[in-house]
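Exercise 7.
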Amino acid sequence: MESMEMESERVNPWKRKKTEQVRDEIDYFRMLADDVIIGRILSRFAMDEAARTSVLSLRWRYFWTHSFASLDFDHSFFLHQLEERMDPGTDARILMYEEQDGWIKSFDPFELLKLILRHLLSSCPLLETLAVSNSSQRLERFKVICTGHDSKLKQLEIISCQYLETLEISASNLVSFTYDSGIGIPVVGVLPSNMTINYKHITNLKEVCFGGRRRYVLLNDFLHLTTYDHSSYLKVLKLTMISSSLIIYYDHEWNEWPNFEIMKEKEAHAYNCVEEVKVIGFYGSDPEVEFIECIIKNAPNLKKLIIDPISPYHYGVTCENKIRDSKDYSLARRSARIMEPNIPSYVQFVVL
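Solution. The predicted structure, written as tokens, is:
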């Protein structure tokens, strides 16, 4: 017994020495700034992995909640998990995805969407990109209000929200705005005959893109804004075109082209700052050519004009290469090349 105590006495001083040495070492993790931990470390983890770091210390407890640059609200995973766990014989299975807006009957999905978006815009000052796409019939009015000094929203995309009637944008740091309603046949109900966009506090907006139904009217409205200095800020202008057959079939919109004479006389200054124009879905029709000629004549600082005959709805799909090899695509490229002699030499003309 005495020998064991003596052995313990011989060991304990060594342990104390090692413990003191460890305490004297520098804890580099404590020296890291919060932004480094969140942006450089936790942002590379999956959500469940990042959440596990909350037990490391009180300081790390909530770091994981700030570490995600992209949030995708998708209920399909929940539905899949629910379906796997339900009794195959239960009558509740009738609730499973009968309609996109009715997957749970006890609350309004549109109200949930509004709640999520309102919370994101008010509680996530570091949010830089907001994309709302393929919304339900219920999204008829939408407000994007980000005017605080700490707001960082720079990019806004509203895609395939066909039932949207009114959009209000007030974002002082917004740099890029894309609106494309899509051209598909409505699944439920009737598409709205009018769609308006109200702009406030968009002094930093440099790039705009319009597509889908009423794109020409929305473009014309934007160019006639009196609260926005186009000549000082607008740098890139994009307009997505659709083949004439689709336009005639879906939205009969050729008569809604903007009045080019009015645009030339009253809003010629709106193009002074435009340096790049990209036309997507070019088909070679007379209104498309007239629009391009109008832009060229009224944009003295234009540096680059890009013509892409492919429809914007075919970007990234498996058949994209096949479409680019098609006869219609070749004819559209040929129509674009016909304009080349009329393009000023100082403008880089690109046909994809």
